[in-house]
Amino acid sequence: MVFPELLVILAEWVLYRLLANSCYRAARKLRGYGFQLKNFLNLSKSQSQHNTSHLLNNQQQQQQQNQENQDSINPLFPSITKYENRTCSVSPDDTLVCDIDGVLLRQLSSKHFHAFFPYFMLVAFEGGSIIRAIILLISCSFLWALPQETKLKVLTFITFSGLKVKDMDNVSRSVLPKFFLESLNLQVYNIWSQTAYSKVVFTTLPQVMVERFLREHLNADDVIGTKLPEIEVMGRKVYTGLTSGSLVKHRATKDYFDNNNKKKPVLGIGSSSSVQDHTFISICKEAYVCNEEDSMNTLPRERYPKPLIFHDGRLAFLPTPSATLAMFTWLPIGFFLAVFRILIGVLLPYHVANFLAAISGVRITFKTHNLYNGPPEKGKSGVLYVCNHRTLLDPVFLTTSLGKPLTAVTYSLSKFSELIAPLKTVSLKRDRKKDGEAMHRLLSKGDLVVCPEGTTCREPYLLRFSPLFAELTEDIVPVAVDARVSMFYGTTASGLKCLDPIFFLMNPRPVYCLEVLKKLPKEMTCAGGKSSFEVANFIQGELARVLGFECTNLTRKDKYLVLAGNEGIVK
């Protein structure tokens, strides 16, 4: 009799420990009923139900605990939306500190690797070569499995190994700022621009990629690399791709302020998804975090710290891993499509070429306020079409849209572009007297198209119009031109200009918009008493009004000095 009682006591202890109180009460009843089979089966069923209930209760408690832990991760770090600018005296030592990736720049992806990959790809493609860019893309297949710091080192080595310093300078000056500006976080930039503190950026990206942008566009006082402080250079001309050590962000911040005898930063902004950022901003008197929801709004173009007028590079999209894979998949198809589009433009009549171009994906919108009256009468000059300049194909699309032959005058046109052009082209010599005589002679033979900006501009701005054309004739017709692309830009300042038409026509669905305005009234020409400068400025203003662009006083020389470091003169 003692043995069964011991079994009952043991069963009671087990049930009490494993099950809820209700199970314990059922076990006590079992003690009085004995070990009949029926009651045993009922007990097994009850035990299963209560085990399930107990498991669910544990899961709910665990979820509540995780939620409480998530809510209490940054009890002292509110969202940047809670920041209030205070009008108080600012000491010269008061400093704002933050990172660029995930803070100043929007969080492009919840995966940190995908967030900074596009900027490495821009350097590899625009500053290196297609082969380097392909290798960088292939590395995505294994980088996801590596630690964060190792990922950065591998990306840096592939991107920078053997890259010329001057090529990196060109990319940081003329390519990256455009993509950085388009990715600026509106909430963080509002705080950045409103505060009068000195601003120091501690960046996880290679310093050479972001320093020029931060200093020239955002007026940062200092830029410190943390993960990759410095990329080694061989002979001051070529990067080795190797890095000279690694620092922890909060340690780099502490050392920076200690070594410069500065008091700790007044304001710090970090990323809510970065554990290092939590430690990094904890040394600040006031700290905020940037959540993924705070990164939804981009900075409007009109609020850019500097107008984005000039930029270079072939890629017209942000090269995320998936977008880059799509681009390389399209590349061979796009090349043969570009060759096909060139051939139909050169070999076929205008109306047939327009039809086949539309079938191949080229979209042309054409609107005219003038009627074609045929070739000029004998002894009378032709019509001078004055266009703003978007790509080298402006005269080509105008010719095919009007359905009549035109002669185009250009500067520095490559032999290849002259060969594939379906219209007559004449190169000018940059000599005012000789160029004027040449254009006057061409006008006496037929209609002429000229782009007085002298160079292309991708953004919604018009450069200063050269007034020479206004002195040639009173038969002036302004033409508003706009071109839109989705994959490749058809212009370049530092690359091979002979490839410009091919890159434009390699786009899946390039768009060309042309609107021929009314002929200029005689009273608005030089024959009506206006100066050539007044005529040029009037036409520039009319084209800007129609296109919704903004007029500038910038010239071809300004563009090439900004993008290529030269005056844009090809010998």
Any chance you could write out the topology, listing elements then pairs?
Blueprint (H helix, E strand, L loop, with lengths): L1 H17 L2 H13 L3 H35 L23 E4 L1 H5 L7 H17 L1 H9 L1 H4 L4 H13 L4 H10 L1 H7 L3 H9 L3 E6 L3 H10 L5 E4 L5 E4 L3 E6 L5 H11 L7 E5 L3 H7 L4 E5 L30 H27 L2 H10 L3 E6 L15 E4 L6 H9 L4 E4 L4 H6 L3 E4 L4 H12 L4 E3 L10 E2 L13 E9 L15 H6 L5 E6 L15 H16 L2 E2 L4 H8 L8
Parallel strand pairs: 1-2, 1-6, 2-3, 6-7, 8-15, 9-12, 9-14, 10-11, 10-12, 13-16
Antiparallel strand pairs: 4-5, 14-15
Helix pairs in contact: 1-2, 2-3, 5-6, 5-8, 5-9, 9-12, 13-14, 15-16
Protein name: Phospholipid/glycerol acyltransferase domain-containing protein
Membrane topology: Multi-pass membrane protein
GO cellular component, one term: membrane
Percentage beta strand = 5-15%
Counted up, domains total 2
CATH architecture of the largest domain, please? 3-Layer(aba) Sandwich
Query: Biggest β-sheet: count, sense, barrel?
Result: 7 strands, mixed
CATH C-level category of the largest domain: Alpha Beta
CATH topology tier name of the largest domain: Glycerol-3-phosphate (1)-acyltransferase
* Helix count, DSSP H or I runs of 4 or more residues: 22
Instruction: Name the poorly predicted regions.
Output: 13-48, 65-74
Q: Compute the gyration radius: what is it? A: 34 Å
Number of strands: 16
Structural class: alpha/beta
Describe the global form.
elongated
What is the typical, i.e. mean, pLDDT? 82
Estimate the helix proportion, in percent. Answer: 40-55%
Strand order, largest beta sheet: 8-15-14-9-12-10-11
How far apart lie the N and C ends? 114 Å
GO biological process, one term: phospholipid biosynthetic process
GO molecular function, one term: glycerol-3-phosphate 2-O-acyltransferase activity
Organism: Brassica campestris
Family: Belongs to the GPAT/DAPAT family.
